[in-house]
Task: inverse folding
């Protein structure tokens, strides 16, 4: 199977949007892990006076996680899937949250410009065509000293990590995707993780992109060795 990219991937997410929240809701720890990654950004003052970018917000789960960590921040949430955003905007949000339909490559055309004090990206980087270009863009959008937080399925590098991920996908994720009528998207989900960077490799990719103080933190439970938080900071220039 060839991985989905760009417009084809956005269309697959559009189709899956109606059932997406229900499917991820049965994933143990899904929302708690997003909140954990958002808290790990350690945003000061509950986000008061801060401007945050939620890149790849989907139906708003990552936006909600950011709000728990920074309830007083201004949050700009962006996604390339119109269907996912349609679900997101139906939920109750405070006045400081706005949603924008745009791909990563077309943020400026959609009026999304920096500087941001932090960028949060959940389940994004294994789905973009050019992760290095996306990291360069994120860095350019951050204010000096701004923080990046990435919540991602990036395997730890051990054979057991790949085996657990594949077993969970074959036993739960792929059958659920078929029942929902979105088999292609969920096959992509499985393969995109297997073919993406390991956690150490993605950390090194962050460093090559110019981020300092890069840290990799694991998730608890069955996702240990499968999902990680990646943290970094833009330097003063």
Result:
């Amino acid at each position: 199977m060839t991985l989905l990219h760009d417009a084809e991937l956005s269309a697959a997410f559009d189709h899956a949007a109606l059932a997406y929240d229900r499917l991820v809701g049965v994933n143990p720890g899904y929302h708690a892990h997003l909140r954990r990654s958002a808290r790990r950004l350690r945003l000061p003052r509950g986000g008061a006076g801060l401007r945050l970018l939620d890149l790849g917000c989907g139906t708003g789960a990552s936006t909600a996680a950011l709000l728990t960590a920074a309830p007083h921040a201004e949050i700009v949430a962006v996604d390339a899937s119109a269907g996912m955003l349609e679900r997101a905007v139906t939920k109750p949000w405070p006045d400081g949250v706005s949603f924008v339909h745009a791909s990563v490559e077309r943020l400026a055309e959609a009026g999304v410009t920096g500087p941001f004090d932090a960028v949060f990206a959940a389940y994004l980087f294994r789905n973009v065509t050019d992760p290095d270009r996306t990291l360069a863009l994120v860095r350019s959008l951050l204010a000096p000293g701004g923080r990046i937080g990435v919540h991602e399925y990036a395997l730890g590098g051990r054979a057991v990590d790949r085996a657990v991920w594949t077993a969970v996908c074959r036993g739960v994720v792929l059958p659920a995707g078929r029942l929902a009528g979105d088999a292609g998207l969920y096959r992509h989900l499985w393969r995109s993780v297997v073919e993406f960077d390991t956690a150490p490799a993605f950390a090194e990719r962050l460093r090559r992109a110019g981020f300092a103080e890069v840290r990799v933190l694991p998730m608890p439970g069955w996702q240990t060795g499968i999902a990680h938080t990646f943290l970094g900071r833009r330097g003063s220039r």
Q: What stands out?
A: Residues 168 and 174 are 9 Å apart (CA to CA). The chain has one domain: 6-234. The domain at 6-234 is CATH 3.40.50.150 (Rossmann fold). DSSP finds eight helices and seven strands in the chain.
